[in-house]
Amino acid sequence: MKLRELAHGRTGDKGNTLNVSVICFDAKHYAHLRAQLTPARVKAHLADVVKGDVLRYELPLLGAFNFVLRDALGGGVTRSLALDAHGKSVSSALLDIDVDAPPAP
Amino acid sequence: MSSDTSIPTRTAVRIGAGAGYSGDRIEPAVELAEHGALDYLVFECLAERTIAIAQQARRRDPDAGYDPLLDARMRAVLPAAAARRVRIVSNMGAANPRAAARKTARIARELGLNHLKIAAVTGDDVLDVVLRSQLRFEESGDDVSAYADRIVAANAYLGAAPIVGALAAGADVTLTGRVADPSLFAAPLIHEFGWRMDDWRALGQATVVGHLLECAGQVTGGYFADPGCKDVPGLARLGFPLGEVSADGAVVVTKVAGAGGMVTEATCKEQLLYEIHDPGCYFQPDVVADFTQVRVEPHGSDRVRVSGGRGRARTDTLKVSVAYVDGHIGEGQISYGGPGALARARLAIEIVRDRLAMTGVRASELRFDLIGVNALYGDALAARHPDPYEVRVRVSGRAQHASEAARIGNEVETLYTNGPAGGGGVTKATREVIAVQSVLLAREHVTPVFEFVEAGDETA
Questions:
Q1: CB contact under 8 A, B376 and A89
Q2: Whose CA is closest to B279, among B346, B222, B208, B229?
C-alpha cells in the first residue's frame, strides 16, 4: 500500500535543507511506520531530490516523524534554478512510497 | 509556570494571525479584527530575502523599504482594530520600520484615529558590523568578506524584548523589521502574563504558539487539502487562525465561527513541524525551544488544544541573514501536446542545449525540465508513470549579467519557427538573484530599540 493511506505530511524549507513531516492518521501505526520508513529508504525514494543526508526525528507523542533532507534545494531557495524552488511538492512524492500493510490488530 | 512578582493582569489572551506572508489575503484579517474578540492581531510578512529587496528600495527612496501592502492592510484593519482595542504587531516595517510607522500614523490620522500610539522597532540592521567582522557563512563556510562588494543587507533576527518594551509603553501598533517570527506572537504573551525572559518553559511554549499561528491559513486548512484524502471546506474564504492562550501558555487554536477552512489535530500537527529541523532543539533568539513533549488534543469543533512546549536557555549569538547579489537567472518555457509530445519536448531540449553551447552562452549552471514529467522530482520517480498528453519544456540557467541570462529564454523562443512541430505558449523571463546565507553574530553587537513615531516626523 501507499504511505498516503496511513499518513499525511507537509514540506518546509530553510536554506538548502528540506524537512518533510510524516504524521500517522492513526497513532497506532506509528511503530509500524517507524520500522518501514528508514532514512535510507526515504533517501533512495527521493534520490533525484536529495543530494545530502537524510535524518529522521521521532515524535511518538504526535505519532509523527520529521525527515530532514540536506542539500535538497538546488543550492538554496533564494538561488535555485528549480521550478519548485521551495520543494513544497516533495511531501506528495514521499507519501507515494510503498509500505507494507500494518499487521492486523 | 513561574511568573514575575507582579500578578498577571489577564487569565487569557486572544491573539490572531492576520497574514502568513507579504502578499497574503487581507479580508481574513479584517474578519478576525471584527469578529475574533481579539486582544492582538499579528501580521508576519517578511520572507528570507524580502528585506533585501526592501533595502534596495530604501536606497532609492529613504521613505520606502517597508511592506508594499502596508497601506492597504492598515486602511482595512485599523478602524475595526481601534474600535475594539485590538493591538497590532507586525514585521511589515521590513527594511524601514520608522517609515512604516510614519505611514501608519498618517493613515490613522486620515481615518480619524488620532489617539493611536505607533511604535517602530529597529536595531536588526547589522550590515555595518557584519562588514567589519571576520565571519563565515554557516551554509558554505565561505568568508563573508569575500562577498563584501555584493552584499545588500544583513539583518539580525531580534527576539521579543523590544516589542514587549513598546507594548509596556502603550503601543497600539508596533512595526518591526527582522524579528524571529514566533517572537512576534511571544511578545504580547510575555507582556500580558508577565513572564520572565529566562522562564525557558514559558518561552518554549510561546514559541509553539507563535509557530502554529505565524503562517496564518496554514493551520486552518491551507496548504493541507488533498481531495478524497484530506478534504477542506471553504478554501476560497479560508479563515485565519486565532489562539486563546491561557496564563500557563497552553493554546486553543481556532477560527472565527462561519469562516472557511478547519482546525483539526491534523492541521495543527502539520504546522507544528513545518520548517523545523531537530524538534528538540529549535533555535530562537529568546529560547532554544523543545517541541518533543508537545500534546495536540481535540477541544471541540474547530478547536484544538496544544500544550507541553518546553525550552532551554537561549544562546549567546543571534542568527543574521546576509543577502547578496548572485548574478541573474534566465528562463524560457514552451509546451508540446498530443501523441509524441514527450519525444518532441525531449528533442526541443536537445536543440536548446546544442544552441546554448554553439552560440557560447556563458551560463555557470543550466537546468532542463519537462514540466509534467520530471521537473519536481527528477527522472527516477517519473520513469514509473505513463507519458503525459501535454508537457512543458523549461530551460533555466545562471549567468552573471542580465543580457547573458536573457539569451537562454531567447533560445527557447526560437523553437517556435526552428524547433519541433507544434510548440506553443512560449514564456521567457530574466531576474536578478538576491541570495541569502546566514551567520551567527554575538548578541553584544546587536542593540534592539523601540521609539514612538508621529505622522509629521521627518525622515531619519
A1: yes
A2: B208
